[in-house]
Write a structure and sequence with these properties.
CATH class of the largest domain: Alpha Beta
Number of helices: 7
Strand content: 25-35%
Shape: elongated
CATH architecture of the largest domain: 2-Layer Sandwich
Bound molecules: uracil
Order of helices and strands: HHEEEEEHEEHEHEEHEEEH
Low-confidence stretches: none
CATH topology of the largest domain: Alpha-Beta Plaits
Largest sheet: 9 strands, mixed
Structural class: alpha+beta
Distance between the termini: 29 Å
Number of domains: 3
Helix content: 10-25%
CATH superfamily of the largest domain: Pseudouridine synthase I, catalytic domain, N-terminal subdomain
Radius of gyration: 21 Å
Length: 231
Amino acid sequence: MQLERILQSQGFGSRKACRGLVRHGRVAVAGATVADPFAEFPPDGLTFQVDGSDWPYREKAYLMLNKPAGHECSRAPKHHPSVLSLLPEPLRNRDVQPVGRLDEDTTGLLLLTDDGQFIHRLISPRHKVAKVYEVTAKHPVDDGQIAALLAGVQLHDEPEPIAAAACEQVSERVIHLTLTEGKYHQVKRMVAAAGNRVEALKRIAVGPLRLPDDLPEGAWRWLDAAELEGM
Ligand code: URA
């Protein structure tokens, strides 16, 4: 594939803009500047550099972000910056979007991609992908509340009680709650219906993926092949 087309496919702008990047000596492959925008490279497995930063070629982009509070999962945020503002411009240009939504004040594991089928598979209730939330409650969590969350709690505007797939007590006020759907404010509403209140909410896992300890709040990284394979 021609270098300018590779750059365009990875979100570096129009073909003309990408040609300009190459002609201005800003693009390198394997450490050597490439001056010819029409130079051919096999894209799979290619890592190129733009202005000295490494970019692995990805036909589709799959990322994880450790979402900080104070960010909305919308492309047209109303009150806070979008989580997309935490990504570099080429990824934003690629139409990468969050896989489902976390509330503005929820932190933790958020996946993003430009693969619509992947988004559908992860958020469709039919696929029952487990999402694990670390809930810090306002009041001590008692056995009755855990039993209610596991048995199912009645939420307004839902026809039937909704049960957590799992609920583990971690400390007096902290539980790990596993859900397989993603209804609006679901954790907060379930915990309230069980007689407590969410004080802080962090998502720590989606399917087999756990939020890595070494990914600081606000940072993102690519999913690797093994992680994607397991999804
Ligand atoms: N449930 C909530 O209440 N908020 C979230 O952000 C995610 C799940």
